[in-house]
Structures
1.
Amino acid sequence: MKKCLEDNTVGNCGNDIVAIYDKINPFSLFQFYLSYNFFNFSHKFLNKMVDKNMANYGTSFVHSSSFCLFSFLYFVLENNDKYLFNTFWNFLKVYSSGYFIYDSLYIIKHQKMNLVNFVLLYHHASGINLLMDDEIKHYTFKMLLFAEISNLPSCFVYYLIKTKNKTFLLFMKKIQFVLYSFFRIPLIGYYMTSAFKKFPYNKNLYISLPIYFMGLVWTSKLYKGLSK
């Protein structure tokens, strides 16, 4: 703020204040709360039919599949109505952030705090951080879309493991590996590289960079799992 006044960039100061207010105003926080509760309710509903871990995978599928469906509207509005597009992007930010908050709390409440879960918590916090940065929203959306597509088979793989259905398990593991490795490595890598080229000083990109390397490690693990 002081720097803005010294440089007489009052307009920029005003924009900064508005951006900060938008993130912390009660109505905005209430939207995140509603989104979190939607996924929390989804988990409770599914938990009536399956165990809590299976219900958590099901909730993940609800988020991934619905985000993929919403993406069609994103592409329709992207180059048309600017107001509707910005409104829809704000909805996507809140929607996915609500899921990340839900899953983070689920991990903290119901799972052991091992390395994998600490990595997942970092992944979710970094994802929310990226979603809040409108400067790179076009890149964030595409990276998130590809990430959610790559997540779709996970629910089915977990279900087949739990039900010990070996007939389709290897087939689904192969689909999971192909989708995950294709979308997470070359496609997300391309858009992340493009974002770095256009916004080389964007700190949020650097904060999210470890997520990409997490994808490389997980791809390797999925590949090894094909032989089991």
Note: The two ends are 57 Å apart (CA to CA).
2.
Amino acid sequence: MANEYALQTTLDQVLVTSLADYGSSVTDNAYSSNTIFGALGRERKTTINGGASIIRQLADAVQNDGGFYLGNDSLNTSQSDTLNAVEFKWQNMYEPIQISRDEERQNGGDEHKLIDLLGTKINLSTLAIRRRGEQAISTPTAGANNLIDLETLVNTGTLGSIPGATQTFWQATVTTSGAFATQGLTDMTTAYYAVSGGEKEDNPTHFFTNKTVFQKYEQTRLPLERLTPGGVANAGFDGLTFKGKPLTYGNHIGSGLMFGLNMNYIELVVDSETDFVTTPFVMPSNQTAKVAFILWRGNLITTNRRRHFKLTTIS
């Protein structure tokens, strides 16, 4: 049957943004919420003005050089070296913005121009680079020069310049779980206290998982009708919590995983001069097109790895 619509089956970007009688905006049908990257950017973003790398000072052991004394007892005058440092590399992300001279002119007239093509391309590139950041910190990404992801950060191997396999203070708690209905809440509770400094001190502050596990957790909470402040009582939930701390899901977190993070020791470190900046447009000498780049430079780091936990193989 012939196409009964004026819109062609296959459209290039120029037609989508320049023909008459179209809507005044481009509706996003491709991107999902950047839950993790957004939360870190709002709550745990640290900006640094350059530098060769990201370095944080650590205490890697308990100091036990003092004691009790009476009268003229001799006192220890030495202090143990419990200081350490961890170094993280800067990593870079980019997204191109490209427009040809033909595209500019085809979208240049006021009569049929409902959307600025260049502005639309900038917006789409912005969505793309933020999605890339969300993916990169949620799950290991193939290739070199990627951001540190949650699966690597909340683990027991090398992170930054410290090998967790031999430096046990630099290990997160990793628990092999199973069916959420029978052991999920127990595993969450056990891991929560394993990484806590006390009953109400140095506890995990945020919980992140994927949509499947999130729904399993929600089913266990329905009879209790636990809502975050501001929630509306209905058939579902406005927000979920565990021990009063927010629990949510990311769209790119791996299957069967849940993370308990203490955000006091998490940083999304960003170079102050490369925080989603857009470079000037340049035109190659042999093309009638111009290109710019959206750039971001930073990394996801922790300063106290043992305060985080990860549950795996949740079903």
Note: The two ends are 46 Å apart (CA to CA).
